[in-house]
Amino acid sequence: MSWQATAWVSKIEAGGASGKLLLYALANYADENGRCWPSDARLMSDTELSERAIRDWKRKLEEAGLIAVERRRGGGGTFQADEIRLAMATETPARPPANPAGGEGKTTGKSCCDHRQMTPPPPANGAVPPTPPYKAEPSEEPPIEPIEREAREGEREEGEIAEAAKADRPGSADFEKRVARFCSGRGFLAGVWQDWEKSSLGYIGRHFAALSPEERAEAERWRDPYLLDLGARKIAPQPPGNFLRDKAWNALDPMILKRADDLRQAKLGPADRQQPEGWAKCLGPAGMAFLFGKMLDGPADAVLAARPFLTDSQLRAAWPAVWWWRASQNQKGGAVFDRRWHGLASAMEPVPKESAMLAAWRAEFDARGWQWMPVFDGLDVVFCPKGGPAGLEAFKAAIDQGDEQAEAEE
Questions:
Q1: Where in the chain are the domains?
Q2: 264-273, pLDDT tens digit by residue?
Q3: CATH 1.10.10.10 fits 3-105, yes or no
Q4: pTM of whole model > 0.85?
Q5: What's the domain of life for this entry (predicted)?
Q6: Are 54 and 43 in contact (CB under 8 A)?
């Protein structure tokens, strides 16, 4: 990681919170010259942006002159991870193409940026521009060329398995993330696979790709029981690549499946053990879509809602749906939301804390007289409609369209 790159990003106008987030992620891998090689899968994991959003923002930032992307081809015609160079020589903040009203997912494919403004003009007298007042020291951390690239190349050697699901298609970003989760334990009960880093992720990925879709599902099903059983007996597990290569789960005792399931149920809260259809976290995309939709509907009591501070009973009277959302969040963390709100989850985007976009949202809440929930201040990201406050009109149109479709179905 280069602190020079991070400092440069802090002064740049990226044109949106997601663009800024992507620049910070790139700076995390950059050397002192602004060069880095992160794969799209790594950037997706770091930013929690979709694959399409990563591609769109890389194109926008490249068009704006903030980054330069060099596509690299390896042996046998395969592509390696792009080399990306941050335009750290650009001292004047640049503004990439503005987001369309429909959000980041809808792009015109054309740059609205005047590239002539990207580089500041030289001094009139022809003098050499002044150097910065600090001495740039080389980063102690080398530029990171991700091991996912090796996995991608190995998986192509095995050939693609023709499956509909992206996560079951070797070579796809979703497949790479699935292999990484299998090793890191993200989303698994047993946590990280001990000493998995001693193996190459490419080696592990190749053996995962060699399995059939059913065998991959079995490997994931047996992962936690296997690791938990060995952990209880103080025995180190075999490397994950060998576990996959040997299909070791075929020789395991089925009783460890039940023990792992019992442990999983014991760790879950009552609300999580049996969640009804339509349940979602209040602070997730569907829950936040509900909250924004109800606030756009307006208060039940406008006079009461105009007060700067509302007690719990006053909030219930002024904003019944907002009160219900807050009560559900405080009590259970989630609730059952109508399917239309689940359908609108794709219209939401994560807005990082302490970002200019989140500050803009807070100002919009104040301007509209909406209640800013204190819980938002403790989150790393807050899900809001795509496109910032300017995207609320498109978000409201999407709600209305969903209502019309629901009425037609009835």
A1: 3-105, 151-267, 279-409
A2: 767 655 545 5
A3: yes
A4: no
A5: Bacteria
A6: yes
